[in-house]
Amino acid sequence: MIENWKYGKQTPEQILKGLAAKISVNVDDPRFYKFMDENDDLAFLRNYYITPEVARNVGKENSFIYEEGNEFYLDFAAQALSWQPKRSKELVGELLDDWARNSHLTYTQASINVFNDDKFAEKVCHLVGAHPDEVAIMNTLTVNLNFLLISFYMPTAAKYKIIVEEDSFPTVIYALQSHISQRGYNPNDLVLLKPHEGGNGVQLNTQDILEVIEREGDATALIMLSGVQYLTGQILDMRAITEAAHAKGCMIGFDLAHAIGCIEIQLHDWDVDFAVWDAYKFISCGPGCMGGAFMHEKHKDNDFPKLIGWWGHKAETRFDFSNVLDLTPGINGYRNSAPSTLSMACIAASLEIYEKTTIQALRTRSILLLGYLEDLIKPVVAVHNLEVVTPANFAERASQYTYRVPDLNIDTELASRHVQCLFHHDFMRIAVNPAYIRYEKIFRVVQMIKEVLAISANG
Ligand SMILES: Cc1ncc(COP(=O)(O)O)c(C=O)c1O
Ligand SMILES: Nc1ccccc1C(=O)C[C@H](N)C(=O)O
């Protein structure tokens, strides 16, 4: 599942221990995070982002993150929104200036962005392991999912079910149910993948999924899963599941919201039928920014039902304004409207950063950062008897660490310490953006969690 782990059989724990031994300290010693931050090949990347700051002297003098010179926020909510690239404002500003100066879209620099949205697909495709013409930059995740379900959910009397995770992000369930109802089937025709029995009540197991596909596949039209499960950070084995889906004649799609920018993905080689993502999570393109969609090139000339608009017409003749459609083959034929140039400017700013590194390098950094977090937090969660639901095997987890905090009201305490992470029910989810989180920040967030849990236990 992990394609390019440069450390052979060593776990992140072993690597970190080995590095700490080299400078004769323990992993939990502050000298270790200093050493790691000073010797980090990707440390330069964070300079391309604006560090969130707020007014400093708001009290809490006793807490050491408030020392002069320290960054204020401890940002671990990359699964909702990531830092702003410095270039975003510049590029959006250029666009706004251009718009102010020129009254007609075709005379502005904006037009260059709008008319070349194909160029953006060329830059994004390597993040999902696709060919350029298998990727379209368009809409937002749920909209793309709804568009693609029109094509990829084609139920028949004998083959009409959809397999999906029980703990899927709700939008996926809503979208699937709406399609099932519209085609006259029953929303209960969703086959829900349950967490592994005897496991921690949340994690899935590849073997279980393959068994469900074996059992239900003949009556199943579509399998729709996450690439990375949003609650646990678990990576699903997209290659194995896709193979099993196809063996049963099912279409398969993935929600990559928490996967893009975090893990290595090879949609083309794995033969995935379609995938959708948004761009405001790990890849920092800004709140509500346009996302993207993938459709395998084998479906390029499909005659599936689909929704069509003028931006799907071939670019060369789109502006002939003929009423005779000449559709762009592949996923780019699914584009309906002219893209949002403001979104494009933000995407451009973020992609400039991704061009300075590789997804393999980011994944390696993310594994080590998460390994460090795990090393530090293990004793803390053990003391409080909290259940970790992120896979213990580093190859099976993306860039998030989750544990359950039943009956512990620690979210407001953490927020008041400017720790940003996400809470869902009793899940506490700490997401680490490998593009800018430093080892020091991880050290500090664990200190905060320790402090807050101690208060909660005593209170
Ligand atoms: C796993 C997952 N899928 C889908 C979405 C919805 O994305 P959008 O708001 O772009 O439709 C989110 C987050 O908002 C998500 O975390
Ligand atoms: N778009 C948002 C707007 C507001 C608050 C959260 C979100 C999220 O994206 C939640 C996230 N996707 C999650 O994994 O819970």
UniProtKB/TrEMBL annotation:
Residues 84-385 form the Aminotransferase class V domain. GO terms for cellular component: cytoplasm. One of its GO terms (molecular function) is pyridoxal phosphate binding. It is found in: Cytoplasm. Its EC number is 3.7.1.3. Pathway: Amino-acid degradation; L-kynurenine degradation; L-alanine and anthranilate from L-kynurenine: step 1/1; Cofactor biosynthesis; NAD(+) biosynthesis; quinolinate from L-kynurenine: step 2/3. The modification N6-(pyridoxal phosphate)lysine is found at K281. One of its GO terms (biological process) is anthranilate metabolic process. It catalyses: L-kynurenine + H2O = anthranilate + L-alanine + H(+); 3-hydroxy-L-kynurenine + H2O = 3-hydroxyanthranilate + L-alanine + H(+). Pyridoxal 5'-phosphate binds at L141, T142, S226, D255, H258, Y280, W310. Its cofactor is pyridoxal 5'-phosphate. Keywords: Cytoplasm, Hydrolase, Pyridine nucleotide biosynthesis, Pyridoxal phosphate. Homodimer. NCBIfam families: kynureninase. Belongs to the kynureninase family. Catalyzes the cleavage of L-kynurenine (L-Kyn) and L-3-hydroxykynurenine (L-3OHKyn) into anthranilic acid (AA) and 3-hydroxyanthranilic acid (3-OHAA), respectively. This is Kynureninase. It comes from Ciona savignyi (Pacific transparent sea squirt). The lineage of its organism: Eukaryota, Metazoa, Chordata, Tunicata, Ascidiacea.
